[in-house]
Amino acid sequence: MATFPPPGSVVVADWHQYKDSKEYFSKILHKKRRRNFGLLESPVMPPHVAVDTVHYKIFISGKSGVGKTALAARLAGMNIPSMHHETTGIETTVVYWPVKLKESSRVLFFRFQLWDCGENALRRFDHLLPSCKEQVDAVLLLFSFTDRTSFDDLPNQLAKWSEPSVRRVVKMVVGTKFDLFMHCDVAERDIRDFQETWGIPVQRTGGEVTDGLGDVASLLNCLAENLWHQDCITAGSASHHSQQETVTLL
């Protein structure tokens, strides 16, 4: 079972509210709204400010209608489509998010490339899912609080991403449409039971996209924190393995 770092133990939580973050977050904003970045675009910092960028590929998985495209739009600060329509192929969205590491106070730009593919398209075209899984670093497993079947399907989704053939990826569960509590089909008790059984925290999202950063900060920080944590574990394992090989050769 994957281990998740305690929230705020790897990156500074709510750093977007700190004064020293303004210079960095201003580079992902335009006229007080999120700046949309193309595949070849990136935030530009002044020459005297050296900031490394780490790149990650994120696949958004879930049943049709749970809000995969809407989540990608929300995380990128774009307008959420008012009408649901099935994604006909693969859509990618680039999200930049500055993070301050807690231990070293080092600032990094996380570049998340979000991959979204319609469920029907995945069924019709066999080559799409392998393309989405190729070199993927994390998967966001979505369910809707208004669709009980999407929540009940989570164990099947987790099983698919836990097969030996799948490279190690960060798995996060996100519940969408949390604001539609009048139509909620998933109780908090169900969420607690799921978290205790699978050891995976559940993120919640919903409501209108605001001009600020607060409505996405928790999810993006959690994603950055878990990806960086996994990279540190992987780097440590590789270093340990290399040392063992050196000792064996000696």
Automatic annotation (TrEMBL):
UniProt-recorded Gene Ontology molecular function terms: GTP binding; GTPase activity
User: Which UniProt keyword terms apply here?
Assistant: Cell projection, Cilium, Cilium biogenesis/degradation, Cytoplasm, Cytoskeleton, Exocytosis, GTP-binding, Nucleotide-binding, Protein transport, Transport
Q: Where in the cell is it found?
A: Cytoplasm, Cytoskeleton, Cilium basal body
Q: Name one Pfam family in it.
A: Ras
SMART domains the UniProt entry points to = RAB
Q: Which domain of life is it from?
A: Eukaryota
- Classification via InterPro entries: P-loop_NTPase, RSG1, Small_GTPase
Keyword presence, Amino-acid biosynthesis = no
Biological process terms from the Gene Ontology for this record are:
cell projection organization; exocytosis; protein transport
**What does the similarity note say?**
Belongs to the small GTPase superfamily. Rab family.
Protein's name according to its UniProt entry? Ciliogenesis and planar polarity effector 2
